[in-house]
Design a protein that fits this description.
This protein is α+β, with helices and mostly antiparallel strands. It contains two helices and four strands, in the order αββαββ. A four-stranded antiparallel sheet has the order 1-2-3-4, covered by helices on one side. β3 and β4 form a beta hairpin. The two termini are 21 Å apart.
Amino acid sequence: MKPTSPKGVDIRRDGRFALHCAVEDNQGGGGEVLVTGVGSELDAPQDFAERGWITFHLRIAEVLSVRHPEHEDRPLVRRWTVEVARS
């Protein structure tokens, strides 16, 4: 990303990040995924640095998936977590 990206500013400030996929419709469509964790800035590879980009190492702390199976009255939720220390 560019050094002025709000996402980069947020990760530099306290390391936390959250990524969420787009859903097909207001009912959740085929499902969704949320990934959270802690990131830290890395030295950009040469080709990225030449373009003025910055890079981050993202350590995943949690993955949450929600699916809406046909013929089910409730969503199927799965969660995976790991302890991640902030750097």
